[in-house]
Amino acid sequence: MITIVDDRKIMLSKREQLIILEIGYDEITSASSFVDYISNMYGVSKSSVWYSLNNLKEKEIVDFATKDHPGHTLVLTKSGVSELGRIKMHGPEIIRFFEARDEEARKYLKSSEVGLARDTISINISI
User: Fold this and answer.
1) Which of 27, 47, 25 is nearest to 36 (CA)?
2) Smallest Cα–Cα separation from 59: which of 42, 26, 82, 36?
3) Which one is the CATH code of 2-114: 1.10.10.10, 2.40.30.260, 1.10.10.60, 3.30.465.10?
4) C-alpha–C-alpha distance, residues 21 and 90, integer Å
């Protein structure tokens, strides 16, 4: 999706759109708690969620606390709220996309558990 923010055209990935939707829908005010939530809910790696959050912060769509600026809650900026309005109508489609990906990943892991168990060696060493 291409959007205009302060006379700049920017591209938003599906993951970034999902993050905007979830920030708009949920009341999770801590960025780290939000990252945990998205990772658990949709099976997206935490590093990917952090990467997307930081991209959105650079694009001035979200704001959250950093080491240099502690105390900020995770919020959509004015531009982020506008973007949420634009992508809300596609919200169910975006969420289904990530839920389907997570379900496929879970099926794959479940079907390969037996193979993984055979290839795993556990060693107990007394110290």
Assistant:
1) 47
2) 82
3) 1.10.10.10
4) 10
Query: Percentage of residues in the chain with pLDDT exceeding 90?
Result: 45
Determine whether 8 is exposed, middle or buried from the number of CB atoms within 10 Å of its CB (0-12, 13-18, 19+).
Answer: exposed
- Name the region of 44 (left: φ>0; alpha: ψ -120 to 50; beta: rest): beta
pLDDT mean over 93-99:
88
Q: CA–CA separation, 1 vs 28, rounded Å?
A: 25
Tens of pLDDT, residue by residue over 29-58, are: 899 999 999 999 988 999 999 999 999 999
> Residue with structure tokens 């596609």?
90
The yes-or-no verdict on residue 119 having pLDDT over 50 is no
Q: Residue 62 pairs with which residues in a beta bridge?
A: 76
Buried b (16+ CB within 10 A) or exposed e, 86-114: ebeeebeebbebbeeeeeeeeeeeeeeee
Q: What are phi and psi of 55, to 5 degrees?
A: -60, -45
pTM: 0.73
